[in-house]
UniProtKB/TrEMBL annotation:
PANTHER family: CYTOCHROME P450, CYTOCHROME P450 26. Belongs to the cytochrome P450 family. PROSITE patterns: CYTOCHROME_P450. Heme binds at C421. GO terms for biological process: sterol metabolic process. One of its GO terms (cellular component) is membrane. Residues 1-24 form the signal peptide. Keywords: Heme, Iron, Membrane, Metal-binding, Monooxygenase, Oxidoreductase, Signal, Transmembrane, Transmembrane helix. It is a single-pass membrane protein. It comes from Escallonia rubra. Its cofactor is heme. One of its GO terms (molecular function) is oxidoreductase activity, acting on paired donors, with incorporation or reduction of molecular oxygen. This is Cytochrome P450. It is found in: Membrane.
Length: 475
């Protein structure tokens, strides 16, 4: 009898565990994990590069409903979409879900970047970045952005009959980053930064297989080089600030080094500065360059919108003395231009979607999302929803005349709520200054009538958007 009782006590916990697992598996979202480890990663990446990613997700929704499970980049994942999903992602308590990204992003940008942190660490690092990126601080950098844009156009546009927009915009945004974030002048060092930076971002969304022939491996090696170069800059900036009395506002690195707590200790560690400088590099480089490129394409196809922007920007140009920089007050007058930018972001969001990681078992939409799983959301699913934006395929900047009329958590190119991108204002200034000079100095037409684009993971128009350009008489 004792033997049977002992056997019963031994088997009971196993039986209860199996029952619990059975119940949990029944409440998991529908869907398949696909091929072990790889899952649907390659299928999604191929769809993004073929410009069919939205259709790929729509087919999942038709098959499984608004919440489904799959495996992406090595981890079990739940895909959710819609206004409620966006709100859930951007407002959930940091004890429930963390910012933790897919392994490829985490390994390339570092585990102390804002994308990875939660709770007090997230607030501390975010507050430090905002001290540089908030509007009151950025006012003083408008003139430097203006100078970089003018120099870029003189070197790469003036005297040309044909240019390819996307690579030139990436050059421009990287030059602005080097100037404002690093205080790094043009030259061999900046050129070396560009080389490794491009290799680094190529593998941010990739299957994390670290073999010599993979994109992921090349990105990891480039990331290590960029990290070392940023560390060198940090050491130089620390000497300039602590020993030579350099201004704390001369660039982002110096600003982050200058932030101290009540005991006069540096608020951010060196790794936190490195990882977050790299994050801002990526965000500032790709978001603005893609946005400006697609504005150029849309204006070529929408002459009425083009004329409206031109009229607004020429009024500002007429008010400036020869050689005078754009000011913060001028930016405030570019209301229509920014509405065009917002509508461009709605139709072609640079960030396709994002990931979060659950820190505990979560119930969402009547299903269980287990601890440690990824949550995947896609911004275009609400941006192109006809029940939210009437006739969503139509380019209509008037949608944003009253932005308060757009339902919350439906337009999310920069995130939302407490998770909204701290670089939003930086991107706005960069875009408006660039568009002012492009539209007042040049006219253009498309050399390619193919309106398709691929994602890698940012949207890339066909052939990088080659255009024919003509100088416009300066006002």
């Amino acid at each position: 009898m004792n033997i049977f009782f002992a056997l019963f006590l031994f088997l009971l916990p196993i039986f209860l565990l199996l029952v619990r697992r059975g119940r949990s598996s029944q409440s998991l979202p529908p869907g398949s994990f696909g091929i072990p480890f790889i899952g649907q990663s390659l299928s999604l990446l191929w769809a993004m590069r073929a410009n069919t990613a939205e259709r790929w997700l729509e087919e999942r929704v038709k098959k499984y409903g608004p919440i489904s499970k799959l495996r992406l980049f090595g981890k079990p994942t739940v895909f959710i979409f819609g206004q409620a999903a966006n709100k859930f992602v951007f407002t959930s308590d940091s004890s429930m879900i963390s910012n933790q990204q897919v392994q490829s992003v985490r390994m390339i940008l570092g585990d102390r970047s804002l994308l990875e942190l939660s709770g007090e660490d997230h607030k501390r690092v975010r507050d430090s970045l905002v001290s540089f990126l908030k509007p009151e601080s950025l006012k003083q950098y408008v003139g430097r952005m203006d100078g970089e844009v003018r120099k870029h156009l003189e070197m790469n546009w003036e005297g040309k009959q044909k240019v390819t927009v996307l690579p030139l915009m990436k050059t421009l945004t990287f030059d602005i980053i080097c100037s404002l974030l690093f205080g790094l002048e043009r030259g061999a060092r900046r050129d070396e930064f560009v080389k490794y930076f491009q290799e680094m971002i190529d593998g941010m969304w990739s299957v994390p297989v670290n073999l010599p022939f993979t994109r992921y491996n090349r990105s990891l090696r480039a990331s290590a080089m960029v990290g070392e170069m940023v560390k060198d800059l940090i050491r130089e900036k620390r000497v300039e600030f602590e020993q030579k009395g350099a201004s704390s506002h001369q660039d982002l690195i110096t600003c982050l080094l200058s932030i101290r707590d009540k005991d006069n200790k540096q608020v951010l560690s060196e790794n936190e500065i490195v990882h977050n400088v790299m994050l801002v590099m990526v965000a500032g480089h790709d978001t603005s360059s893609v946005l400006i490129t697609f504005i150029v394409r849309l204006l070529a196809n929408n002459p009425t919108v083009y004329e409206n922007i031109l009229r607004e920007q020429e009024e500002i140009a007429k008010s400036k003395a020869s050689g005078e920089f754009i000011t913060w007050e001028d930016l405030a007058k570019m209301k229509y231009t920014w509405r065009v930018a917002m509508e461009t972001l709605r139709m072609f969001p640079p960030i396709f979607g994002g990931f979060r990681t659950t820190l505990k078992d979560i119930e969402y939409g009547g299903y269980l999302i287990p601890k440690g799983w990824q949550i995947f959301w896609a911004s275009s699913m609400t941006h192109m929803d006809g029940s939210i934006f009437q006739d969503p395929a139509k380019f209509d900047p008037a949608r944003f005349e009253n932005q308060a009329s757009v339902p919350p958590y439906c337009f999310v190119p920069f995130g939302g709520g407490p998770r909204i991108c701290p670089g939003y204002e930086f991107a706005r200034i960069e875009t408006l200054v660039t568009m002012h000079y492009l539209i007042t100095r040049f006219t253009w037409k498309l050399c390619c009538n193919d309106d398709s684009f691929s994602r890698d993971p940012m949207p890339v128009p066909t052939q990088g958007l080659p255009i024919q350009i003509w100088p416009r008489k300066l006002v």
